[in-house]
Amino acid sequence: MSHRHQTVLAASFEPVRGQRLSTMIVEQLQSAIFSGAIAEGSRLPPERELMARFEASRASVQEAVHILERTGLVVIRRGAAGGAFVTRPDFLKIGSMLKLMLQANRFALGELYEARLLIEPGGAEIAARLATTEDISNLRATIQFHREIPADMPSPIGRNFHYLLACITANPLISMLVSSLLGVAQAYRLQQPLATRSERLLAHEQITDAMEARDGVLARQILETHLRCLLRQAQQS
Amino acid sequence: MSHRHQTVLAASFEPVRGQRLSTMIVEQLQSAIFSGAIAEGSRLPPERELMARFEASRASVQEAVHILERTGLVVIRRGAAGGAFVTRPDFLKIGSMLKLMLQANRFALGELYEARLLIEPGGAEIAARLATTEDISNLRATIQFHREIPADMPSPIGRNFHYLLACITANPLISMLVSSLLGVAQAYRLQQPLATRSERLLAHEQITDAMEARDGVLARQILETHLRCLLRQAQQS
DNA sequence: TCCGTCTAAATGTCAGACATTTGGTAGGTA
DNA sequence: TACCTACCAAATGTCTGACATTTAGACGGA
Q: Which of A2, A119, A235, B154 fits A110 for a cystine, CB–CB 3.0-4.6 Å?
């Protein structure tokens, strides 16, 4: 056993050096979840049973399940009827994770606005087509909300005008992407707010007006101008 | 000790129910990394030492470090001079995680194209401004590559026309978003390819031609038309 | 009916051991 | 000197078995 390196010209050159056990378990569970073999809301087998199935220690199994929870694929409840329940990662959680990782690479602020400029104006146009009167009044309420709270208080994402706008598109992919970008933006903005509050509120109001008039093109233009202005400022600083 | 629930009107109502140990360790290490207290490229203390610092078991510490690795914040090397080295998550890795989470929510194919329609045409316009002759020949090489490989063989992301296009924007945020969306798209496309190969290749060639002519608007239009056509098909099916 | 209490199932954590990987070092040999 | 080999030590990977904690539900008494 001590002469493993004197291998006698093995037929297969594949190293197949196993990954970490927990990683492989994660992958198997993931594909089981994606394939629908484990339905949403149902419970994964308890750890002891997974141990037996994967022929791994509890530590490895547990780490795998914890990673799944961190990814947002399951929630773990302790106690008698507890366990790991398959769930759907809500896109706020996804956004916050993305934000975290974006934060690690330090992007230029300009790059951020450039990306927003790609998504949001087009999103506004779609939103204008779909907005209900309730959506509109939601937007107005948010504007009012921001008018009242102190400027230094960061507002929750649910009260963010741009996020609400994205949600109106009824395309979860879009709202997710926007919420991620906004999360990154927030981390930057704490350092240096680019637009004055009144400028921002004015733009938001104009956009809402345009949407109420069902003028998608106008809404798009205003948002585009607004963001492009911020982009220029960001590139200068 | 068995009457814990008869708490005598605690002064603080905060449950402060401790999170998982590994989670708290992850957070501390993360903020240490983000703050720069642990420089990029340097090594985290070995597990035994982290055990002592956090007063936790090796299992907890190890799980935390593994999670950091999964997040892309460190790479772990085994062996003598091994350990967890602080690194920067490259955006392909981030993109793949985003893709994973997008995949978990099952989107309609139409929503996917709608999102791509927001990002990619604008991205193409930016790319047309910045493309070098080398970029152009890269694009052509990719088209040729796809012309030659069998249709059923999935191509690597580095050979994906749309991804290359996004990379030319020189905005890592954009390439990341696009690569994520493409990843999701790939999972779908295995089921049903919407565009015929010749249609796709033709569109790609036209876009490249437009970029070579520095006609950003045209490149944008072609890509937009192409995607919008696919979107319509997706909505019908 | 409304409580407390107990129980069992499940996760959370720990300690210690052994296995594996891998860089470096010391020594021998051409 | 240059190269190869064997060995060592540091570090992560994994397992085992135990104990701690949480919590839903069952059981029973006022």
A: A235
